[in-house]
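residues and backbone:
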Amino acid sequence: MSAEVDLSPPEVPEPTFLESLLRYGLFLGAIFQLICILAVIFPTSKGHEYEETEFTDGKATEQLKKPKGLTPQLRQKPKKESKKKR
């Protein structure tokens, strides 16, 4: 009953270059994702504020509107006229 118990830590092989590259690449990917998520939550673009002020101006909105009469005509394809076979 006096058996010795080996309490030493198990031998772990050294990580290879590919394993360490993968590990740090995953860390960088996670950091990039967090930055992207924070950018969506807290937008701080000054150009966006400039666009909003431009759209509130009446003259700017009139210039941006396209004539509605021309757009449906451009989208329509000419219909093929086919002869009925008898």
In short: Residues 17-42 form one domain. The chain has a mean pLDDT of 75. Helices lie at 17-41, 46-56, 58-64, 70-75. The radius of gyration is 33 Å.
